[in-house]
Amino acid sequence: MDEELKQDGISEAEAAAGENNGFLQAQGTEQENPETLQAQGTEQENPETLKDQSAEQENQEPLRENEPKEESTEAPRENAAGGEAPEKPAEPAEGENTETPENGNGGKKKKKKEKKSLLGEILDWVVTLLVAVVAALVIRSLLFEPIRVDGASMNDTLADGEVMFVSKLDYASTWLSFPWQSEEAKESAPRITTGLGAPARFDVIITRYPGRGDTNFVKRLIGMPGDRVKIEDGYLYVNDEKYEEPYINDAYRVSGGSNGMSFEEVYIPKKGDALSLEYTDENKNRIVLCVNGEPWVWRGISSAAVAADGDRLTYTKDGTLTLNGEEITADTDRIVSLVGKQFSLEQDLYFVMGDHRNNSNDSRAQGPITRDMIVGHVRFVFFPFGAMRGVE
Prior knowledge:
This protein is an alpha+beta fold.
């Protein structure tokens, strides 16, 4: 009978629930025996009871399926054979607000996360900006800097408005000052001399002058420390050697102009030279500043000089004389007391001039400059693009 049910596709539950009396009769030859009925656990004499039992079985079947199954080592085999894996609980969509014991107020916690994210983004921008600023400062101080020509003092080598590529890698001096500081504060700020080389004669350089703060000037380096320099009939002489200077326009070799053209030989002081105050005549009526015993013909020496006892003497371009930071220009007694005292220069000095010799504010008016006033080496012009060229 079981084989016939399987072939016909009829389940035992359907058979039990069926109303086919013949089936009941076929199965019930021994149903008159109450003990047999008890063994089967059914009351087949009453069709209504059978129907109720089959209904109960149908209702209980899903519960059996949902009951936890015993763990078996063959479970993975069933899954591998194609059985369906238990479904994972669906994850909430991104941005979906779900209430949990930890996030009972859902919306508030989400807003807090958004604030952190916004703050982090702002910090990223700030850090990026700071890194860019620091990188730019390092590049401008140690590698190169673009500088625009302002004026005609370097005609015809450089024209007004042209933009130069200034190398700091060759040699430079970095002033640790800020734009909003006064000229005095900028000049007294610490300076770091950098570069792989040293300035050479006839280099076109970017320099600064005493009393002008961090204002840049483009000039040509003419006199090195220890040189003797003069201009005679429009031509340059260094240590008695004449230089043609092909970069000079012949129209600029004439006398005249605000600074004049020719001047007598001048010695360019070097580090360690002696600076002193000396009488110019036997009557001791006049006192002048001397370098190595020779009267100094230019006003201003940008390097201080130090005496053996630690006293520091400076002489600025306007003729001001100071001792240990105190002005003594009008203090005759103090000046007389210093006559003959030897001071040693702390730095090398350099003599610079513009190529437009009749129209240049340079060492003829400012005096020689110290090494730490040279802030760059002009390499080439890169703007306007049609005028790109090297500078020599």
